[in-house]
């Protein structure tokens, strides 16, 4: 009667219509397995042997139905926490689940880092999920885009030495479907709509499943969803297959998923399965639904419990006897009990391993592998564009653009997208017009050279840009995306903070998404005002897992961007708008292999009296101040340009401060809680004995940048501000 999960799956998916008694029994077994794992976890939580519990109770029929229609390890899965039955039916075991519940080192999804039900399995293509509701849908979209790209260009999946590709395994089939699920409450998230947008527009094989249990914790569906039915709201998206089903009936659910999968696999576009299920228990063990659901409502819902209904059906149709059902239930209990007992004995994670997988273990961007700075070797390529070093001075904008061209030629897995980055989305226009190539023209000519498949405009939605990039990257591609202005990075912050920087760590190194986000930043624009002048780099250096780079000149921008693109970590690449086309920071083109390692400061000006630590637009302003300090006050200032803010070059800071005994940290961003606070605190802590004066900081006033130039000048630090601080500190 009982089947092993894998062989059962074969027999389950064999039937196109009309399920056999044997299949119905197997469906019930999987549903019951899911429910009983929940029940065991609830017991363990009450005994304080595990630390959190959220159940999939009431969602089992939908999950088993979906798994039956799909191919584990072939299709891709971006489930959410209610998908216990789905994961069990795909091949995740109760033992895997129990190991996560106790937080064991051998928890296959996260090594004890994530709560239970935060699934993840490389073998099954179940991508590690966060607790954030809805973010994963955009990953699913990017994942589908990458699958399509690899199937159209299979040669690009080959391993390559010398960059992240050496460490990213690529698998694809050409017709894989990407499953992504979400609760009905979470469809209120913007990312849900942003995912539907791109899946629809690009006809991607993403199967969206909304598991509608009528509540988002205590908030009923009509509060979240106008009219109370999400199917009605999404019905006009083009290219979709839509179906709304009773998600408490596994057979009905299975047939819905079969039709949806067929649509996706045939390349006709995405699918949307809206399953009405129920919540058999409260939202989680931290919730008590008796506080907000009347008894009659709870009792009516209980009548729709998929387990109760399926059991009754097996009896009604004489598929199993009461005795056989009890035997089945008993066997499952024993299996789960044994799994729980083993999990409670499992080794716990090591405290010494806590920071493992914050960054790539494989490729260190601070290493000498990226130190071609002194000996950039030109590579000959058969392209009409000049790619060898030359003597002509180029702006930062030119050399960033040149690096993007070089790297896209070298690495066919790079895609570039963002708002207005294409030359022209309507390709035919390019016969008549020059093309846009970004609002600052940094991506000019990329679409023309590499085509619209690799360089394209995104919707005006920053979370969409970053979320999809995560999906692309976890398949092994390298998105180099643009956020048009730093001031508008905030809609993507959720993706950056909770997903991008965390995927590797939370999955214990199973998944990674090394993308590059290029972002024009900063003020000194004379009229840039509040929403085109923002800084805020320390907000991002405060995120473990994310590299933050901020060059101050054309040559550094070129070499650091190359390292950012080739490395195996996610990188936020901050480009100061004011420095894009300055005359003082230009440099000749250094060739297509010029790279600068992260974490190596540059001594902009050697000096002996005082150290000035800075970066970005304050580098030229500090230099001006230092020259005047020398001329007018005979103070010899040493300027360090950090170039990368995470990691940063502590060694060079310590060497310089030890030499000069006086230090100022200067940045454009607001002074309070800014980047300088961290550097100053560490200097005070570790170099106290070397100091002859307090550590000083320079930064903007604690306010946003105003439009009127006299206000802007007063708000942002100027060379005069820096000079005054130098003179004061020397006299201390
Ligand atoms: C972005 C985000 N906001 C809030 C939460 C807290 N939270 C967790 S689950 C949940 C309700 C989700 O409801 P629904 O999408 O209907 O899924 P269900 O739990 O009912 O299956 C909320 C508000 C979260 N995890 N993520
Ligand atoms: Mg819900």
Structural class: alpha/beta
Assembly form of the protein: single chain
Q: How would you state the average pLDDT, rounded?
A: 95
Task: Work out the strand percent.
Answer: 5-15%
Query: What's the helical proportion of residues?
Result: 25-40%
Q: How far do the termini sit from each other? A: 86 Å
What compounds are bound to the protein? thiamine diphosphate, magnesium ion
Q: Uncertain segments of ≥5 residues (pLDDT<50)? A: 1-16, 375-386
Helix tally equals 25
Strand order of the largest sheet: 10-9-11-12-14-13-19
Descriptive tags:
732 residues; alpha/beta; five-stranded parallel beta sheet; 21 strands; elongated; binds thiamine diphosphate
Description:
Helix 1 crosses helix 2 (21-46) and helix 16 (462-474) packs parallel to helix 17 (493-500). A seven-stranded mixed beta sheet has the order 10-9-11-12-14-13-19, with helices on both faces. Strands 1-2-3-7-6 form a five-stranded parallel beta sheet, with helices on both faces. Strands 16-18-17-20-21 form a five-stranded mixed beta sheet, with helices on both faces. The radius of gyration is 29 Å and the shape is elongated. The protein is built from 25 helices and 21 strands. The model is unreliable at 1-16 and 375-386 (pLDDT under 50). Magnesium ion binds at residues 183-185, 213, 215-216. The site of thiamine diphosphate has 14 residues, from strand 4.
